[in-house]
Amino acid sequence: MGRAFRWLIPHPLLTLLLTVVWILLQNQLSAGMLVFGIILGILIPWGTSIWWPDTPKGFRAGRMVFYSVIVIWDIIIANIQVAWIVLTVPNAKLKPAWIVVPLELRQPEAITLLAGTITLTPGTVSADLSDDGHELLVHVLHTDDPDAVRDEIKTRYERRLKEIFS
Amino acid sequence: MTLEVLGIYATAIFLLIGSVFVIVGVIGLLKFSDPMTRLHAPTKVGTLGIGMLLLASITHSFATGGSSIHELLIMAFLFVTAPISANFIAKANIHRGVCAPLPDLPDDGTWSTLTPVENERAPREEATEGGRA
Description:
- The complex is a heterodimer.
- Chain A is mainly alpha-helical.
- Chain A contains six helices and three strands, in the order H-H-H-H-E-H-E-E-H.
- Chain B is mainly alpha-helical.
- Chain B has one domain.
- In chain B, helix 1 runs antiparallel to helix 2.
- The longest helix of chain B is centred in the N-terminal third of the chain and has 30 residues.
- The N and C termini of chain B lie far apart (61 Å).
- The C terminus of chain B is likely disordered.
- Chain A: One of its GO terms (cellular component) is plasma membrane.
């Protein structure tokens, strides 16, 4: 039974996500649409499984929801901060900086999530990865203390992502 | 009646907030002088600006008796794609050399964007193997 389930639905979260996306695309909820969404959610991961060779082990969806809430809150705060910097800090006083964030995360999925989070939050853009994948290059718009920004990224986001992908 | 009016007011407020953030993003794009700092304004202020406009669209549809939530999908796709386009623009800036010089790595590796092309094939295969293991 377990093997049949895994053969039919190799990526349960992807199936759920595709079903929800289909229902949202239809913009209405009816039984027929739900069934068709579930069929798509099973067929698409099955047909594209060659590009998903392994599922991340020990992914914790509950903590991921909590993490998303924190990130959305940070995005709102970040927007206000960046808007304030744009409107009040003159170009000559702007202090942009490169910072190097040493990564403890190793899974490609986790590093992608971290890089995306950094780009969406306070005045930082993730620009590049070192060739061995152990450091992330981040550009900061305006900071007096680059080390503090690096420590905040590590404690606020990377620590939580390590718990999600443990 | 009152709920409908409240919905319309909420729509107007969301539209106003969204427009303010979009215009701040445009000001940032025009004001900053360096390509890397110019990248910051649209990527961040844009997401909340567009998000607020889409929220206005949702509240408007509910206030006028409809129900439309597929704007949530637009938001989700924006949040997924914005970091990727920002990353590509940053990489283009690094290649063109229009930004401040990159910091050195603690060990003697290089940044993957600057990896010489002739060495690219071998290390990349090795790196993906190592990343998967």
